[in-house]
Specification:
This protein has twelve helices and nine strands. It is α+β, with helices and mostly antiparallel strands. It is rod-shaped, with a radius of gyration of 48 Å. Bound molecules: 3,4-dihydroxyphenylalanine (DAH).
């Protein structure tokens, strides 16, 4: 009688023609081989469940059917071998099914952790945070130098009244020097008291500072200033200054020039020399213009390639900034006693110094935000 392996468990041993222990054993061996083949295909949770139900299912699982159809009705002579073989098969099926379950579960867990794993050795997201603009870098360099010799840093408003920008600095209304500072006046809403203007220099902060503090005063004041200048290689409607002011009971012209010389040497290098020439500012007396020995030709006036140095035009000197001893008239505006105090002031163009130090020939480069320029000063 030919019966397919799959269906043998639904028939009795008698029907299958198994009369000897050997035949029983070979039927069990056949069944075990079938289980092993089935188990090999149980690779997922779904196919594992199907395997378990097919073999261990309570009502119609293979082992239940074998118990019902082979063991229970078996002849007393074969019962022992059938029982022993069934137990052995059951133990094998139980163990294999459990082993499969563990394998499938741990594989699923491994895939899940692999998916969630954070690789700490990866470079991560690097955000482009940029860097300090060259103007800011130079400004800080200048601040640091003055800070190191006892100056503190203060700031003031960019919108000013004519009083602070001009009058209190000894520049009365019809003074011709106002013509040098073509000024942006603000259009104000009706009823707002004016006039107001964008400061043309940082000097008004001298006045604010002296109104608030009594001598000794030693401050530097960085900030933006505005003028109605047409843009070209050396002019911009907005640029940067750092104002300096030192007032005390016994400040001399020597203190003044010594301080400036110290600053210039710190900023450009110890080999750079300074000199001053007479100049004019309404708020200083005497007023000077400070020069540095040309940092491009070393003060020789001759370019390294020969011929006249293009930067100082052969003079050997480069103009740096204006300065002077504070005009006693200014003290009158802030209720300092000009007989008791003296001091000096200076107004450095930050953009100009940055251009000189870093060899930049167009002030516009600072404000165009071209990354090819900015990246050169990381
Ligand atoms: N405020 C002047 C300007 O913007 C620069 C200046 C010159 C400032 C002399 C000073 C000074 O404090 O003493 O042109």
């Amino acid at each position: 009688m030919s019966t397919t392996t799959e269906l043998k468990q639904t028939q009795t041993l008698g029907a299958l023609g198994a009369k000897s222990a050997e035949q029983v054993l070979s039927l069990f061996a056949e069944l075990r081989a079938r289980f092993d083949a089935d188990a090999g295909t149980a690779t997922s949770e779904v196919s594992w469940k199907a395997l378990r139900d097919a073999w261990l299912g309570r009502k119609s699982g293979v082992l239940t059917l074998v118990t019902d159809n082979w063991l229970k009705p078996s002849s007393p002579e074969l019962k022992r071998v059938v029982g022993a073989s069934l137990n052995e098969l059951r133990a094998h099926v139980d163990a294999q099914i459990e082993e499969r379950r563990v394998a499938i579960e741990s594989r699923a867990q491994a895939t899940a952790t692999a998916k969630d794993r954070v690789d700490l050795s990866l470079p991560g997201v690097i955000r482009p945070i940029g860097s300090h603009h060259l103007i800011r870098q130079v400004l800080q360099e200048i601040e640091d130098i003055f800070f190191s010799i006892g100056f503190s840093i203060v700031e003031g408003p960019e919108i000013e009244t004519p009083y602070y920008n001009f009058e209190a600095l000894n520049i009365p209304e019809h003074h011709p020097v106002r013509d040098d500072m073509d000024t942006f006046y603000l259009e104000l809403p009706k009823g707002v008291p004016g006039p107001l203007l964008l400061r043309t220099h940082t000097s008004p902060v001298q006045i604010h500072t002296m109104e608030k503090r009594q001598p000794p005063v030693r401050v530097v004041v960085p900030g933006k200033v505005y003028r109605r200048d047409n843009p070209d290689a050396t002019h911009s409607f907005m640029f940067h200054q750092i104002e300096g002011l030192a007032v005390d009971s016994d400040i001399t012209f020597c203190d003044f020039t010594g301080t400036i010389d110290y600053f210039v040497k710190q900023f450009f290098g110890a080999s750079v020399k300074t000199r001053f020439r007479p100049s004019y500012f309404p708020f200083t007396e005497p007023s000077v213009e400070f020069d540095a020995s040309c940092i491009f030709c070393g003060g020789s006036g001759t370019a390294s390639a020969g011929g006249v140095c293009g930067k100082c035009k052969g003079a050997g000197w480069i103009e740096l900034f204006g300065a002077g001893m504070v005009d006693p008239a200014v003290y009158g505006f802030v209720n300092y006693d000009p007989k008791k105090v003296s001091g000096f002031a200076f107004g450095i163009g930050i953009d100009r110094l940055a251009m000189l130090k870093y060899g930049i020939d167009d002030i516009q480069a600072f404000f165009q935000n071209d990354v090819r320029f900015l990246r050169q000063f990381p």
